[in-house]
Amino acid sequence: MPNPFHLAVQVRDITEARRFYGELLGCPEGRSSERWVDFNLYGHQFVCHLNPDLGADGNGVHRNPVDGHGVPVPHFGVVLEMSDWEALVERLTQAGVRFEIEPYVRFKGEPGEQATMFFFDPSGNALEFKAFRDIEGQLFAT
Questions:
Q1: Which of 17, 76, 77, 79 is deepest in the core (most CB within 10 A)?
Q2: Where is the VOC domain (predicted)?
């Protein structure tokens, strides 16, 4: 197994985070307390820390132009196998998640061609999930 990353973010409500990350995204829950909860985000340790004063508007997010879209920065996510990415798109669409950048294939026909989508969690954290037909050959292609 490659080295898993550890990422901790702020959320405005732990119950809301459990519904979004645990139920909607399907991340198994690990350790927790009243003020934080660990999730297994596709093999990585992802922790939501409570900040009840946090807003959820995403307006403080900076956007950089990439392939004709304003990509929210900062953002995080996971590179998935294409079939897992497609299944996640379906699950999010059926749940009525509003995409910041609708699922599509960017850099078509170029090195690094990838399927991608962006959306916000209920606390305003920007997420990107992407997939490549050949992860090892395309992830760092120039």
A1: 17
A2: 3-132
pLDDT value at residue 142 = 84
Name which of 50, 73, 72 is nearest 123 in CA terms. 50
Q: Name the E strands within the chain.
A: 6-11, 29-32, 36-41, 44-50, 62-66, 69-73, 79-81, 99-106, 114-120, 126-132
Provide the residue ranges of all domains of the chain, joining segments of one domain with +: 6-50, 62-138
pLDDT band with cut points at 50, 70 and 90 for residue 137: confident
Residue pLDDT, tens place only, 18-62? 999 999 999 999 999 999 999 999 999 999 999 988 765 555 678
The topology (CATH level 3) of 6-50 is 2,3-Dihydroxybiphenyl 1,2-Dioxygenase; domain 1 (3.10.180)
Counting Cβ atoms within 10 Å, is residue 96 exposed (0-12), middle (13-18) or buried (19+)?
exposed
The CATH superfamily of 62-138 is: 2,3-Dihydroxybiphenyl 1,2-Dioxygenase, domain 1 (3.10.180.10)
How crowded is residue 71: how many other Cβ atoms within 10 Å of its Cβ? Answer: 19
